[in-house]
Amino acid sequence: MSKRNHLLWFALPALVLYAIFGIYPLFSAVRLSFTNFGGVGAETWIGLKNYAEILANPEYFKVLKVTLAYCVIVVVIQNTLGLLFAALLFSLPRIRSGARVALLVPSMYSAVIAAFVWQYIYSPLGGGLNESLKVLGLENLQQIWLGDPGIALFAVAAVQVWMYVGYSTAIFLAGYMSIPAELYDAARIDGANAWHRFTKIDIPLLAPSFTVSITLSTIGTLKSFELPLVLTQGGPDGATTTLGLQIFNSLFGEYRFGFSSALSIVMLVMIATIAYVQNWMLRKREQAL
Question: End-to-end CA distance of the chain, in Å?
Fold first, then answer.
């Protein structure tokens, strides 16, 4: 038996599991999206009516707008902080390992547990955040963090950033470790200060890290629903209803399995399109640098 056949046999269990838990559910969702299946009973073929309902209802365009806004907020802040933390840790090797672990700890928590903890922190009555502002004499900054439509989405996004900024930091830090030390030595000899080294050496050579971190954070954020579900249930007034949460509500709240499947396919196409275009642009940027 050839070496290639040996490798195929080793890969077979993983391929079977992927087919069962990945490919089959995808095709099932596509099939259900053309029915009005309600969870029990027979399926009735209705064609494109579920998709037509999505396109005809302005509520779902509002959900899409909230989802994209949430994604932009999280991705920008998470990657900016991740880059800054990585630059700081790269310059402080003595605390690098401990700080890196500390930043990754929040991502090990269940999103549901983290959401309940932050729900208490955000509480307007005795919550940790408002009480801390009171102690610091900043009562004028106290807010109803999850009850104000103007700031609720930012409050939920802050929790997601807190949980996953460690991932971005680790990715950027790995990129920093691959930069040759000779470049920094040459830059210092030429009189380049820290800002010039950051903009002329770090940013260009970290292009692959930007591609990986931005792509992963975008995909993860677009399909997020646990934090909005627990923190706000999509409120107030739909200000934090993401597409993933809308699918959850349609499925387990309204028992519209067929319609939820159609929304899932819409989300899949949206994520695939955004990830492809984003990855293409970032790869093009890598080549230009």
Answer: 46
Q: For the chain, what percent of residues have pLDDT higher than 70?
A: 98
CB count, 10 Å around CB of 6? 10
Q: What is the pLDDT of residues 166-213, one digit of tens each?
A: 999 999 999 999 988 888 888 888 888 888 888 888 888 999 999 999
Other Cβ atoms less than 10 A from the Cβ of 191: the count is 7
Query: What is the set of domains in the chain, with CATH numbers?
Result: 56-110+151-288 (1.10.3720.10)
Give the tokens for residue 174: 């790995």
Which residues 6+ apart lie within 8 Å of 267 measured at CB? 222, 223, 243, 244, 247
Overall average pLDDT of the 276-289 stretch: 82
Q: Which amino acid is at 67?
A: T
Mean pLDDT of the chain: 90
* Whether 70 contacts 153, CB under 8 Å: yes
